[in-house]
Amino acid sequence: MTATETFADRLKKATWNDHEAAEHTTYLDALMSGRVSREGYGEMVAQHYFAYMALEQAGRALADDPIAGPFVSPELERIPSLEADLEELYGKDWRDKVAPSKSTLTYVARINQIADWPGGFIAHHYTRYLGDLSGGQVIRKIVERTYKFPTSAGVQFYIFPVISDLRQFKVDYRDKLNALELDEVQAKRIIAEAVLAYQFNTEVLVEIGKRLPEYLVA
Ligand code: HEM
User: Fold this and answer.
1) Residue 79 three-state SS
2) Which SUPFAM superfamilies match (predicted)?
């Protein structure tokens, strides 16, 4: 750690290896090269749905918390978008067709377990939403090109209509991370939880990837 390194810098640096591992799972590499069927993409959207249900439920419970509350922004909420995407991908009866995988159940259990620890919640919040606002925007372009959905339903998860400037939003988000008053022990615990959050995400993607032979096109 250097004297000028902020908490947001530390968090990114300490998790970037785990980011690379998540980004380069076999499944995401195949998705990013347009080789995953619509059904295979739908499986990831379904798994996102269960994770975000837990994350956003935890967020609502912490909305007035002095530490975690400032991170809980309604403009980030993904559940309505995920519901629209799932309806496009699976049809109106999508709720009967999707189920959490084993890895998602483990991830959700961890989110629920840390839901009363504001720092832990922030670690999970950061790992997902800052990712959706960053690499998620790259995924969006590929997904639009691959599946050519008739409307935005199918990729709404990656669209944040209420946030006019994603870049500025991320700058403000990092400012909030840097404004947390953390001692070294707390800072390290949050970083460790973010590493875990990446690992849960990677495991979810690895589990979907096991079905790639079914999902690969061309
Ligand atoms: C195809 C997959 C992915 C691509 C291409 C990608 C790409 C990127 C890029 C280019 C950035 C840097 C943006 C910037 O510096 O502003 C970034 C940041 C980030 N990504 Fe990803 N990513 C992918 C998958 C993921 C996944 C699966 C997660 C989480 C589970 C994730 C979480 C994050 C987070 C938290 C950041 C913010 C890091 C920070 O600035 O502190 N990404 N991603």
Assistant:
1) helix
2) Heme oxygenase-like
Nearest to 197 by CA among 185, 209, 208, 189: 189
Residue by residue, pLDDT tens for the chain (218 residues) are: 566 899 999 999 999 999 999 999 999 999 999 999 999 999 999 999 999 999 999 999 999 999 999 999 999 999 999 999 999 999 999 999 999 999 999 999 999 999 999 999 999 999 999 999 999 999 999 999 999 999 999 999 999 999 999 999 999 999 999 999 999 999 999 999 999 999 999 999 999 999 999 999 96
Q: Whose CA is nearest to atom 36 of ligand 1?
A: 131
> How far apart (Å, rounded) are the C-alpha atoms in residues 105 and 42?
18
Nearest to 48 by CA among 205, 193, 160, 173: 205
Output the CA 38–ligand 1 centroid distance in Å. Answer: 23
Ligand 1 mean position, distance from CA 182 (Å):
24
What b/e sequence results for 15-28 when a residue is b if at least 16 CB atoms lie within 10 Å of its CB, and e otherwise? Answer: beebbeebbebebb
Tell whether ligand 1 has an atom less than 6 A from the beta carbon of residue 23: yes
- What ranges do the domains of the chain cover? 12-212
Q: Which fold has domain 12-212?
A: Heme Oxygenase; Chain A (1.20.910)
